[in-house]
Amino acid sequence: MTAAGDAGNGRAAAVSGLVRQAAPIDNDSMKTTTLALAAGLIFTYSISRGDSPGVHTQSPAYTAEGHLIFPADYRSWIFLSAGLDMNYSEGGMQMSHHMLDNVFVNPAAYKSFLATGTWPDGTILVKENRRAETEGSINKSGQFETTETMGIEIHVKDVGHLPDQWGFFAFGDSLKPAAILPQAASCYSCHAAHGAVDRTFVQFYPTLLPIATAKGTLSEEYKHDEAARKATPGHGA
Ligand code: HEC
To answer: How much is the pTM?
Structure first.
């Protein structure tokens, strides 16, 4: 985790290195100027990625091999929605237990979405899958989420860094840095063919769908899906 953290803070480390090198050279005013310059650099970088200065950067971070470093603090981000046993194919596979998923997004991207109805560069969406359970404590029926995660998937928008703006990453229990999933993976085609906003499933994030609708950012693919669904008998508009 330390190595990953170091890599993630590479830019901050480089900036503080600059300060450390410069500090012994000259007098106090020189130091002040250097510090102000370094602070300016951090500030400019944060703004360019849409983050608030002074808080954890929340930008995608990679190892030297280009593997995405797991964003350890995603649980303090913005919660978008939960899904129970969602299945995207007719009939679907039967699982021996239920599963719930929770979707989170980094706060800077969320704030930007509220203003524009779409995702900015630097968006990180986390889908945390959890085993559901009925038996536990005082529960008698229904399902609750357990401590057992069943994989965590991440969808990142990083325009300058990823081959096609967005990339998918899948993390196992170890949460070790993950390589980007290949473009041929079904993740890319399903999200592009059905995602309501910029390859993401905003149609399932109830507080964001009205914003995208109002801002006119819904994808043609989604509008087409909706028209077809409403035209199907039994799904009346
Ligand atoms: C057949 C369609 C389909 C495929 C294939 C698919 N997804 Fe998704 N994905 C969805 C739907 C629907 C949602 C939103 C609902 C939910 O919470 O599950 C979603 C949501 C997500 C999210 C939350 C952010 C977003 O983009 O909305 C992530 C992350 C994600 N999927 C990762 C993956 C990964 C990784 C793969 C491939 C291993 C994958 N998905 C394959 C349909 C698909």
So the answer is: 0.79
